[in-house]
Every structure is written in structure tokens, then in C-alpha cells.
Amino acid sequence: MSGTVSVKELVDEITNLEVHSGKEYLEERLITTEDISRPGLELTGYFDYYPEERIQLFGMTEISYGNKMSAKKRLEIMNKLCGANTPCFVVSRYLAVPEEMTAAANKHHIPILRSKLPTTRVSAKLTDFLSGRLAQRKSLHGVLVDIYGLGVLITGDSGVGKSETALDLIKRGHRLIADDRVEVHQQDEQTVIGEAPRILRHLLEIRGVGIIDVMNLFGAGAVRSKTDISLIINLENWERDKQFDRLGNGEQKVTIFDVDIPKISIPVKVGRNLAIIIEAAAMNYRAKTMGYDATKAFERNLNELISENSDKK
């Protein structure tokens, strides 16, 4: 994990979050971890291992327990919960915020946020957002396209035709995520997310034409903000002496962070319709993930034919 996120960014990006108090402190309070804390032991007075750097989430359990305290004890506990690095308090289910929490938070310049969602859903939304924003990132050269809901990263040397192929795919109804530079981060043990840098969002560069705005030309349905990267297709200039996989049984992998992503190499030659080939490759990969492998079916048919011919002899 790396970087920080301000509480203001959290409020701006996550729906169903409203500011109860401390609006003036949103930009100065920074979040450095995706972990969320529900202060249980702390409400009993145990602060030996208090994770003050985390967002402090209050649900029905925490609020109900706090309401059983005296006002003096409640204020004491709330002041202890206001650590120097505590980014904010979040109260779920639109529960009433105790006056002592508001007083302590204002004293220590800590915002209080509220949500109508149940506590577990608030926690999940916060964690998903923070894991993406705080994750280690890297930039890859390529074009990322959504093909039938499958994130396909098209790579290859400069000038091989990646952007032109992406334009053909967009015209066939698929969606652009990023052109030229793709920012990627690992979401979990099996998922890598790709998106466009802010400056390149919705833009596509076509040699001889220049930069085009895909959303403006083709509509909102032609773009997408981000997607999982499920398949990498590498475009390579065709060479007579170079061997390419013809049966689809030479599986390649590319490791991005800790995730292995399947890779297919496609030769680029004059007259080949790369958009249709990539579209077919994506559909074929999806069929494999659903249990049907055309290569294995061919091998099975071939073995049956050999067996039949052997029996006739």
C-alpha cells in the first residue's frame, strides 16, 4: 500500500456518505490505510492497542453501548478515540450521533460522517474504495478495451496498430478504458484493475488523424472508467521464420504484481482484420473459462479418428 487519500476525496467519491460535522477539516485529515476499525474494546476503556490511524466506524452495537455510559464517561472515551492520526468517524444507519462524539471530534478537528447503509455495507464500500486508491500502482504501455465484459489489454511495439485496432473494436460496440498508458493496481490475490490516467481519459490517438474523444464521437456507451484485466493480447509484426501458436495449446502468462494473466501473441500482417481476431480470441478465452476448450475438442476428435483408422487395419 502507498500514498494517502483525504477524507474529502472519500466523501466526494462514495455515495451515501454525508458530512455531519467538521466539513472544514475534510481536506486536512488524511487516510493512510484501507483497514477499518470498529471500536469495541476501546469503548470499555482499553486503549493499549488502539489503531488510531484507521477510520473509526460506529454501528448499532457501538452507539448502543456508548449510550449506556454516563455523559462524563462517554466524553472521556470519545476524546481518547480522537487520535492525532484519526482521519474521521463514520456512523452507519443514520444513527443519532452522541453530543459527546461531536464535541470531542470538533475539539480535535476530526470530521464525522454518516450513512444510511448498514454497518457491514458501509465497511465494504470504504474498504473497496481505499484498497484501490491506496494500492501500489504502475503504468503499462498498451490499450485496454472491454470486450463483452472482458478486460483485454492490447500490447505491442509502437506503431504496430494498437490504437487503430481499438478504434475498430469500439465501432463494433466494445468499450475503451485506456489508450497508450494504462494505470494498473492489484485489487486482491486474483484481480488486477486497469484504468486511464486522468489526462488521457476517453481519448484515443490515431496516427494521421490526431487525438479523438471517444465519448464525444461514439457516446457514453463506448467508454468505461476501469475494468479487471483478464487477458493480454500482444500484437507482433509477422515474420516468415517466426513460429506462432496455431492450436492454442501453448499458454503464456504475464505476471503483474502477484497475479498471472494469460497472454496470446497475434501476428500482424497486411490484410488481417485484427479487431475481429481479437474479438474471437476474447470469446474463445471466455469459453475456456466456462469449461469448453476448442483445442482439447480438436485433440479428442483427432485421437478418435486415429483410433478408428487403426481399427480398420
Structure in words:
With about 325 residues, the chain is α/β, with parallel strands linked by helices. Helix content is about 30%, strand content about 30%. It folds into two domains: about 5-135, HprK N-terminal domain-like (Udp-n-acetylmuramoylalanyl-d-glutamate--2,6- Diaminopimelate Ligase, Chain: A, domain 1); about 140-295, P-loop containing nucleotide triphosphate hydrolases (Rossmann fold). It has helices at about 5-15, 60-65, 70-80, 100-105, 120-135, 160-170, 215-220, 275-290, 295-310, and strands at about 5, 20, 30, 35, 55-60, 90, 110-115, 135-140, 145, 150-155, 175-180, 180-190, 190-195, 205, 210-215, 225-230, 230-235, 250-255, 260-270. The strands form five sheets. A six-stranded mixed beta sheet has the order 11-9-10-17-19-18. Strands 2-7-6-5-4 form a five-stranded mixed beta sheet. Helix 6 crosses helix 8 (about 275-290). The longest helix has 19 residues, at about 295-310. The mean pLDDT is about 90. It comes from Ligilactobacillus apodemi DSM 16634 = JCM 16172. This is HPr kinase/phosphorylase. Its EC number is 2.7.11.-, 2.7.4.-. It is an enzyme of class 2 (transferase).
Briefly characterize the structure:
Helix content is 32%, strand content 28%. It is an alpha/beta fold and 313 residues long. The longest helix has 19 residues.
